[in-house]
Design goal:
single chain, about 400 residues, alpha/beta, Metallo-beta-lactamase, Chain A, Rossmann fold, 2 domains, seven-stranded mixed sheet, six-stranded mixed sheet, 13 helices, elongated, binds flavin mononucleotide, binds fe (ii) ion
């Protein structure tokens, strides 16, 4: 069924949501689906902003035809050549062979890599500072390298002050009855998923995101039109502030994250007792996760939210328990910064994980690993109360 929504003057959303995909990029769980957004601006010339993922291609093409109502589009803007937004390039060109693809040089080469049959496609190559005028609307292109691919462009419409922000400001989660963030309780419904999307998809590129936010600060942005998740037309500063924090690796709260691994439950029990004491002592929010039961993308998201991270890790065959090792490796890959870490280790015959985890964490930029370690053999007992209290104190003070 056709589902199109006007998001700004002459500007219509024609996207769709996939609620069946289990894993985004075949990696990240999607319990609430994901939307793929596309837009059409109808002016003297008609511009399409991006195509869609193959999963929502039928919806996209149905919506596109409805918006065009028999007219022929002039331009297809490709903000970056990732298949979740580009699967339909060849099909759209088959329908409208006179379309000019407006994109960066690098994306044009990638388009040819994905679609070698497009030998006759017309390209208009644009870079930072270039414009596309369609009559009443003038689109300025802004380079956003590595937000999320190297060739990413944003486009800013002088007329509506809408920023077509590609994958930036995107959110996991399907869209329901509206495309606008302000029609939902965003903090309740989408904020955690927006953070998880940010941290895992572009978290590594904080510096590049910061640079593009600085460029955006010079624009009078009235609406943000991302490729995933809701469109922003009100309270933009709420989301821009979140992005500034996330991009600068500034903890969003002073909550404390506790992540544990546990084969048989003893390390879990110790982590829970620790977390309860820590909550009582600090009055701060403490979030506890079992690394085996929680997809690592959620742990990463919580690292972006919390200021301190406490890891309880059993020794496993002389090494770090695999689920904790995966978490550490993901944090390293995403270049986590500005956090305080504390380590607790368990081992029945020779606990060694504090030393091994510390060696990894000490390579992280602007991070501290507190010297106090909680070491216990097999399980924590009442007789260890003092030791536990000392560790709680050390984490609280850090
Ligand atoms: C397969 C396996 C390998 C282990 N390897 C080690 C080890 O190399 N060194 C050690 O001190 N403890 C080792 N342990 C013991 C655990 O680190 C831990 O002390 C024990 O599982 C109790 O904690 P839990 O109930 O949280 O799993 C191992 C346990 C298992 C089941
Ligand atoms: Fe992307
Ligand atoms: Fe995307």
């Amino acid at each position: 069924m056709i589902n199109i929504q006007e998001v700004a003057k002459d500007t219509v959303w024609i996207g769709g949501s996939d609620r069946r995909l289990a894993l985004f990029e075949n990696l990240f769980p999607l319990p609430n689906g994901v939307s793929y957004n596309n837009y059409v601006v109808t002016d003297e010339k008609i511009v399409i902003f991006d195509t869609s993922d193959v999963s929502v291609a039928d919806q996209y093409l149905e919506n596109l035809k409805a918006v065009l109502a028999g007219r022929t589009p002039d331009y297809l803007v490709v903000l970056h050549m990732e298949p979740d937004h580009c699967s339909q390039i060849e099909n759209v060109l088959r329908l409208y062979p006179n379309l000019t693809i407006v994109t960066s040089l690098q994306a044009s080469n990638m388009i040819r890599q994905f679609f070698p049959a497009l030998t006759d496609a017309k390209f208009q190559l644009v870079k930072e500072g270039d414009v596309l005028n369609t009559g009443a609307h003038t689109f300025h292109f802004v380079a956003a390298p590595m937000v999320h691919w190297p060739e990413v462009l944003f486009a800013f419409d002088d007329c509506t002050k809408a920023l077509f922000s590609a994958d930036a400001f995107g959110t996991f989660g399907a869209l329901d009855d509206s495309v606008f963030a302000d029609d939902y309780d965003f903090e309740k419904k989408y904020l955690d998923e927006a953070r998880r999307y940010y941290a895992n998809i572009v978290g590594k590129f904080g510096m590049q995101v910061t640079n593009v936010l600085k460029k955006a600060a010079g624009l009078d942005i009235r609406a943000i039109l991302p490729l995933h998740g809701p469109v922003w037309r009100k309270d933009l500063s709420f989301f821009l502030d979140k992005y500034e924090k996330w991009a600068s690796y500034t903890p969003e709260t002073d909550d404390i994250l506790v992540v544990y691994g546990s084969l048989y439950g003893h390390t879990a029990s110790a982590a829970e007792a620790f977390a309860a004491k820590l909550r009582r002592e600090t009055g701060k929010g403490v979030a506890v996760y079992d690394a085996s039961k929680t997809d690592v993308s959620y742990l990463i998201s919580e690292v972006w939210r919390c200021a301190k991270v406490v890891i309880f890790c059993p020794t496993y065959n002389g090494g770090i328990y695999p689920r904790i090792e995966g978490f550490l490796n993901d944090m390293a890959a995403l270049q986590v910064q500005n956090r305080t870490f504390a380590l607790a280790e368990n081992g029945t015959w020779g606990p060694v994980t504090a030393k091994l985890c510390r060696a990894k964490l000490e390579t992280f930029k602007n991070c501290t690993v507190i010297p106090e370690v909680l070491t216990f053999k097999s399980a924590l007992h009442e007789s260890d109360e003092e030791k536990l209290d000392a560790f709680v104190d050390a984490v609280a003070r850090a």
